[in-house]
TrEMBL record:
Its main location: cytoplasm. It is found in: Cytoplasm. Its EC number is 3.1.11.6. InterPro entries: Exonuc_VII_S, Exonuc_VII_ssu_sf. Heterooligomer composed of large and small subunits. Keywords: Cytoplasm, Exonuclease, Hydrolase, Nuclease. One of its GO terms (molecular function) is exodeoxyribonuclease VII activity. Belongs to the XseB family. The gene is xseB. This is Exodeoxyribonuclease 7 small subunit. Signal peptide: none annotated. Gene3D superfamilies: Exonuclease VII, small subunit (1.10.287.1040).
Amino acid sequence: MTDQNTTEQQPSTLPSLSAEELERINALSYEQARDQLIQAVQALEAGGLDLDASMRQWQLGEALARRAQALLDDVRAQLDAAQANQASAGATAGTQSNLEQ
């Protein structure tokens, strides 16, 4: 008796970004990633691409969006840390414990 819930995994024939392409994307600045993401979205919205080209643009867009988000997350973490430092410094500013240091 065969298990009908088991499906064999077929190797993906969809195009995917190479390690070199991902490395290049991960070296982009926020502005560069954003601008290239806009271009990828515009290419998809314009239509006229075959399935492989559409899938490639989508994958490129996803990688660019992840890069831009990672950079924004880093900036947010730095801002949060700076605000926390400022708040803790402000809490002791002008107090006797601060003056004794």
